Protein 1
Amino acid sequence: MKLLVTGGAGFIGSAVIRHIIGNTADEVVNVDKLTYAGNLESVAEVSHSGRYAFEHADICDRPEIDRILARHQPDAIMHLAAESHVDRSIDGPADFIETNIVGTYTLLEATRAYMQNLDENRRNRFRFHHISTDEVFGDLPHPGDTPDADQYRFTERTAYRPSSPYSASKASADHLVRAWRRTYGLPTIVTNCSNNYGPYHFPEKLIPLIILNALEEKPLPVYGKGDQIRDWLYVEDHARALYRVVNKGEPGETYNIGGHNEKTNAEVVHTLCDLLAELCPRLGGYKNLITHVPDRPGHDRRYAIDAGKIQRELGWTPEETFETGIRKTVLWYLDNLEWCQRVQDGTYQRERLGAGI
Ligand code: NAD
């Protein structure tokens, strides 16, 4: 197969590309605009492969997307390109509307035109896989509010109730993808995944931010009480799940992907402090750097995924526990501090984003 991956220079897209080139015989075309979040170093370990190609392009640019599809003739599209940081969407929603909604619309239309020129056999096998988030569902009851909270999980039938400009833009994109399936018969598949963590995560996100601030002995910011619950999945498990879905998933279906690892943000920060104290001992440890800061406006309280469908129907389960994945992650950051420095240079100094007005 030849897979066209959008956003392949980002955190999850690069993990998908490293997985495909490293573990399969498939070819990959990486289409990325290289925003502040995109970095080709994240695919450097596989980019020498003859099965890898890069196209520097904006998914909102229809003539460019038409040219790329005509040139590379992919068998499937894995669409990950997005503006992805909730805090940035609070400060400036425009880019989120443009890339996440208009960009997805542009890709859908370009794909529809491209498919008309495929022979019947290739058209029947073609897939448009849209990668989305569990944040489209809004938040779940929190154990602090109700004793039966753990009975609630997001399933593929949960109604959409997004809270932030980011999640609303992703929800809009999901709706467009489903409409293009129903109206035009496009062979689309949607996946909604929980919070990812692992190597090559841009340092604005919680886990790398805490690791890097701790190593520089800077405050470790925790939003509000730190009791917000997320369901953490190691990024390489997500990449394996996405590859399974694009190969074996049913067109028209949705699959939820999650790690069965519900943790409060405070627990995650404490775990990171413990690991760093073991791997990079500091007098007094790291927990005394924890600083509670005003909460994010509209902050969702709890996410948790029921990943039963992808397990039953496609046989996918995560390989990493939170404990094994978080240790790998910390070790990776300790070995790759120069990557962290380079991706932040000139664009980001780990300042507070999205505090609201
Ligand atoms: P990321 O911000 O790390 O990477 C996004 C990539 O998209 C970057 O390489 C960027 O350059 C590229 N990009 C942005 N705008 C573009 C445009 N207009 N044209 C072409 N390329 C563009 O994001 P990520 O964390 O890797 O997330 C990838 C996808 O997975 C997103 O769609 C996100 O909504 C979804 N997702 C993320 C998580 C998570 O925990 N990070 C969880 C579930 C789903």
Note: Residues 44 and 195 are 24 Å apart (CA to CA).
Protein 2
Amino acid sequence: MNFCYNLNIDSSRSVYYIKSGGKRLGLREEEIEAIVFPQEIRIFRLSCKILGKTVNFPGIMCLHNDARGPYKGGIRISDDVDIAETVELARLMTLKTAISDIEFGGGKTGINVNWNCMYELYNRKPIDIEFEKIVRLDIVEYFAQMYRDIFKSHIYIPAPDLGTGPEEMAFIYNETLDPASVTGKPEGVHGWLPGRRESTGYGCAFITKKFLQECLNKNVRGATIAIQGFGNVGSYLAKYLYEDGAKIIGITDSYGGVYDEKGINIPALIEYVKKNGTVSGFSSNSLTNEDLFSLPADVLIPAATGNVINSEVAKKIRAKGIVEAANNPITLDGMNVIEERKIPVIPDIIANSGGVIASMEEYSRSLSALKTKKEEVFSIIEEKLQQGFENSLRVSKELNINICESAIQIALERIYKAMKNRRYI
Ligand code: NAD
């Protein structure tokens, strides 16, 4: 088996770690390539009629690897979606489902929407939450119609990601009328799961507490936290840490940020964001993203988007540790600086896996029609996260590699085994 291509989709941090992990495990070069390279990429154009105008949006669906189970991954709607990013996010899902030991593979959908252009086209002023909602829902409705068959046959099971949420998932269910064809459905829709909405943030708060205890020798009570992003993940993560006594000293989003050295009142901020669509203006102490990354917090949690910590940003970080709530927030060169500076990092494939663990539960409950409680879902998330965290910490110490590398190596072993058993390689 040979790979001869010149596509810029394999130069990311995960690929670098897959390659080094694969070599440590004694895999052949072509076997490593087969794990790195996606099984299928679909490029599509959605032609959507929105509020009387027809608008076209490009999209990418990456079906990365299904050796361990159906392709699983969120639908992202954002203005910086591209092919390389979508492939990387799909690959991270393959690794995430493997380290979490759940029976899914990895996939991802990215739909590119230029919001500035949309506001101009419709003669509206940002931020218009209602307008954005209409656009997102319409886009997902068209997308669901286009790919109904692959959802209905459980080849690829989508979920929410940046820019989409439970309401969009209900539109997919409307098309398939199959509760197991999509996860992250809203309360009351056939097959919905209590706790799914909060699951990623809950899992991330849980792992931050473990990280504080086991790697930073600190209790969550009084620990200082800085968070980038206050959407689904960032807001629940902040809420659960706040309830456990942590001091959230800085939060930023796309429009601005807030700072309070005594700790931000998170329930009040959540209410403010519901009305205003941003954390900006919540208090007179504003904060830029740049300042957020250099706050002297115990833990820095990027929970917004990818590639925000490069080598330059990494040099300025003053936090004692980092938890990757967002997917791929630290670039490879950023990671090299962070490693040199001996700042421990909990990787995305562990830190934000609460969502896909809950999705596994939602999927299996949808197939069996058995109801469950939020507490049960949270306890499954804790068990899976704890196991992934402890295994990765152990291998990291044994092999003297960072936790991001050890988590990927454990995932790699499981993916390789499944691919071998299914004669994919
Ligand atoms: P969201 O759309 O609900 O919220 C994103 C937040 O990040 C918003 O506050 C937004 O203003 C902010 N943001 C976006 N770009 C930014 C930038 N350049 N600078 C500063 N702030 C910015 O998205 P989400 O669902 O909370 O997802 C956040 C991250 O977590 C993404 O990387 C996503 O892939 C990852 N993730 C989400 C889930 C999930 O269940 N939602 C699961 C796993 C991983």
Note: The longest strand covers residues 53-65.
